[in-house]
Design goal:
Strand content: 35-45%
Number of helices: 0
Largest sheet: 3 strands, antiparallel
Order of helices and strands: EEEEEEEE
Helix content: under 10%
Distance between the termini: 16 Å
Shape: flat
Number of strands: 8
């Protein structure tokens, strides 16, 4: 999970796609302060975060699981 805490910067968007080679699915999430972005994890859920071009991005990152052993 990811929460953007501010939006007064350039760049830093998060991209979800079906992998670095297929490119059949591609979605860039626009940044808004206080926005929550949730996504699954694993080899079938490829994501990339673009470089910050100006300013500072503040965000809160967290991981969650339903596995009782974690």
């Amino acid at each position: 999970g990811l929460v953007y805490l501010n939006d007064d910067f350039e760049g830093g968007e998060i991209l979800f796609e079906d992998g670095p080679f297929n490119k059949l699915y591609r979605k860039v999430i626009p940044i808004q302060a206080n926005q929550l972005v949730l996504s699954p994890n694993g080899p079938n859920f490829y994501h990339e975060v673009f470089k910050i071009r100006a300013g500072k991005r503040y965000s809160l990152h967290f991981w969650y699981t339903s596995d009782p052993y974690h």
